[in-house]
Amino acid sequence: ATREQQQENSNKRTATREQQQENSNKRTATREQLIKIRRNPPELFSNYPPVLALYTAMAYVHTTDVSKKKILWTILLNAGITIAEFIGGLVTGYLALLADAVHNLSDVAALLLALLGAKGSQLPATKKSTYGYKRIEVMTAFISAVALVVIGVFIIHEAWQRYLHPQALSDPWLFLSIATIGLFGNLFSVRILHSEKGKSLNMKSAFIHMYYDMLSSIAVIIGGIIIITTGLVIIDPILSAIIALMLFKSSYMVIRDATLIFLEAVPATVNFDDVYDAILRISPVTDVHDLHIWSLSSNEIALSCHICLEERDFQSGPDTIVNINAMLRKQFNIGHGTIQLEKADCSRSDLLCRHTEPRWE
Q: Is 68 helix (H, G, I), strand (E, B) or coil?
């Protein structure tokens, strides 16, 4: 009987080792398949099983590259416009043209920051930065927007001084010609960046820079025409102040979005209650608490929560997590879901996890 028991235990150990080896082979095959298919375009992900499609789509998002060539072309173009407008503004004394030149200079800086942010956000995750460096693009957008505020204050100050002490303008046809060249350059830059503006807050900031610079170029041209035809030089500081106000508006939107990301607020595109209800509708979930939703970057959303199951349903817990993650990706574009299983009688049932209890005894 003892020998039979020993043989049975030996058989069990052998079966366990075979099962472990089989699981290891499956994991290896899955990794190899992920590496192979992560280069495929997103429309092909539907051909794979739900879990594989989910993580492949996430890999594709992580490796999607912003067109650096477009950014470089826009930088070169705006650097040329900035030099021309600075020279024209100094020669003619047209403050609005100088204001537009300063705005263009901030565009060049914003585009350089966009290029830096695009590269930095694609750096791989490390043991110290487990999410990678995705918020570099948010940080660069924030810096760029703050710089616009500073430039706007400077323009407002100079416009006020010019309003109190009007100055005659020389060679109005020169600044009108330069402003027209700048407008065409800005139109071309807006055209280049239009397809990139929705990919990140960083690119949105760069696009807003170019868009408002295009509008300011139009204002400069209109002002030049009015000065040439009527001689009203007072239009110069007025247009300069309008350009500064446009800078403030565009900066506010970017600073607001970046600050909400830094504060780890729920993204504007996600409704907290809708996510809660959607998770609760998935069987066999009985309760949801400690629910947190935040942005990793301007285009990646993360979620963590605890879900409660009856004890008899714990065996199907991994499948439930897979179903929830697939639903979050499909309905809310939430790609990083961390879900913890608990029993229905969990003592910590606060939906928002307010941590009102003492942290230390």
A: helix
Q: How many CA atoms lie within 13 A of 341 on its CB side?
A: 16
Tokens of 94: 């047209």
Contact 66, 198 (CB under 8 A): no
Tell me if 179 sits within 8 A of 100, measured CB to CB: yes
pLDDT tens track for 162-196: 888 877 767 767 777 877 887 888 888 888 777 77
3-class SS of residue 290:
strand
Q: Could you give the C-alpha distances from 256 to 157, 237, 261, in angstroms and in order? A: 25, 29, 9
Give the 3-state secondary structure of residue 354: coil
Task: Give the chain's length.
Answer: 361
Beta bridge partners of 123: none
Distance separating alpha carbons of residues 211 and 110, to the nearest angstrom:
13
SS3 call for 303: strand
Q: What is the mean pLDDT of the chain?
A: 75
Q: What are residue 339's DSSP bridge partners?
A: 305
Alpha carbon distance 357, 172 (integer Å): 71
Q: Could you read off the pLDDT of 248-279 as tens digits, one per residue?
A: 887 888 788 889 889 989 988 899 999 999 99
Which DSSP symbol is given to 353? -
Token pair in block for residue 57: 């789509």
**The overall pTM is greater than 0.70:** no
Distances (CA, A) of 318 to 9, 245, 313: 29, 54, 10
